[in-house]
Structure formats: structure tokens, C-alpha cells
């Protein structure tokens, strides 16, 4: 299979513009169209829908796209293994991450990365809803929970300590919990589709779960930033990652609740990618960059 045609198809699918993709590869519009038509004839399917106004992916094209990306990644890795320049970080890297974490720690350092790697472009999918890496054809993703999926490889970026906290105004109004039992008399915030998590403390203190099943839970959301803002506004007690609330805990706008307790589920912040994927130079460069800029020790503990 012609990998140059595959590269053209991937770029055209990303840009939804065959002529523009061809120009990126030094091809005249007519040559680019002819090369794509030859690829479609080879695979026996229309990969792109063309009209006088726009280009769009066909259903077959959407299904074929992740495989085309993988073939190109394999080619780059093979070239790198033979010392033929594949070690140069270049191309578009598709990265999925929590919007909350990305706003705080990734977006602010992107100019540094782009200056270091001028031939790498980033396509960011930022959402607190977890993306399917394989179906979405992502090169890399950031996830902050215990990795259990056997189809993924992972590199630990940092521990993800999670603590309970509330606004001082809420605690003045409703009182400060002294024991786990006291949590049942409070209003708590829940995370949508999130399971109750075990919390414990050193020594003889009893363990429990958060949110408690008998607590007042009137607000449930699926966005970490909104969870923190609602907590700051005095809605109730919430569980948050330390990386999300460490500044507010330092300046006193949030207060640790039951400070001896932390979530005990081995959660961490991971950089993950499908096992089937080859780690290309652009992905290696971004992983190394994030480890240096954010991890070990994590920037929120420095």
C-alpha cells in the first residue's frame, strides 16, 4: 500500500480539504485528487465524500482512518530504527485529556513545547468524559484513575491524591465534620457516573466511603472545574484531586474536611496509549516534555 497516499488521506481527513493537504505535501490539486482516487480503488471503498462545497469522511473512511494512522506510525518507527531520520518529532499528534487538568497545567506550557518542536502540531480533545483511545485514533491520552485496561500501555506522570474540602462559609453555616459519621448530616457534591470511593486515615480511625449513601446529595456534575467552583460557592463538601485545589487550600478559600482522611484507591495521573501503537518521535517528545514540566515531584507540590 502506498504510504504517501495514506499520508495524503490522513491529512485530507484532518483538514477536510484535499487541495490543502496536497499543498502540504508538495502536490498539485489534480495530482492529490488522482492519488486519493487510486488509494480508494486499491482499498475498494470511497474514503472521502467530495462536493463542490466541501469534503467529508465517508463511513468507510472513518473506519479506515485509525488503521491508516497506525501504518504511518509503524513506517516512522521503522525508519527511526534504521537511523533514517525518523527520530525527528514532526506531524500532528492527537491528545485527549481532562479539561480541568489541561486548563491548569497543559495549556499554559504549550508555547514552550511548540517552540521546542516547531514541526509538531497538536490536536487536543479536552473533556472530563473519558475518550476511547482506539476508536478515537488518539496518539496519547491523560487519565487520572487506576489503569485496569489490558489494551493500554501507561507511563505514570504523578500521584493523584484526593481530599475532601469545603468553603469556610459553608462550614460556618453547617458546622465542621469531626468524624465520618458527621458527613451524613452534610450536603455533599457527587460526580456523575462516579462510584463511591473508600477513604481512610492512618492509625485506628475507621474507614468509610465518599459520598456517604445517607448524606444530602443535591448536586451532581460531570466537570471538575464546575465541581470546584460550586464548592467555593458554598454548595457543600466535595472530593477533589489535590492538583485541582492546592492553591485554594493554601489561600484559605477552601478548607480540608477530615484532613486525616484521603481516598485510598491507588489513583494516579497516567499518560496512556494503545498497546498496538508505536511510540513515534512526536509522542515520545510530548511524554518527556510533560514529565519534565509537570511530574516527579508534581508541580503542585514543588
Number of helices: 11
User: How many structural domains can be distinguished in the coordinates?
Assistant: 3
How are the strands of the biggest sheet laid out side by side? 4-3-5-15-6
Give the CATH H-level superfamily of the largest domain. Periplasmic binding protein-like II
Q: Could you characterize the architecture of this molecule?
A:
- By secondary structure, this protein is of the alpha+beta class.
- It has three domains: 3-81, Arc Repressor Mutant, subunit A (Orthogonal Bundle); 91-160 and 267-301, 3-Layer(aba) Sandwich (D-Maltodextrin-Binding Protein, domain 2), CATH 3.40.190.10; 162-263, D-Maltodextrin-Binding Protein, domain 2.
- The protein is built from eleven helices and 15 strands.
- It has helices at residues 3-15, 18-24, 29-43, 59-81, 99-106, 110-116, 133-136, 168-174, 224-232, 242-251, 281-294; strands at 48-50, 55-57, 91-97, 120-126, 140-144, 152-159, 162-166, 187-191, 197-200, 208-210, 216-221, 238-241, 255-256, 262-263, 268-274.
- A five-stranded mixed sheet has the order 4-3-5-15-6. It has a three-stranded antiparallel sheet with strand order 12-7-13. A three-stranded antiparallel sheet has the order 10-9-14, with no helix packed on it.
- A hairpin with a 4-residue loop joins strand 1 and strand 2 (55-57).
- The protein starts with a helix and ends in an 8-residue tail after the last helix.
- The mean pLDDT is 86.
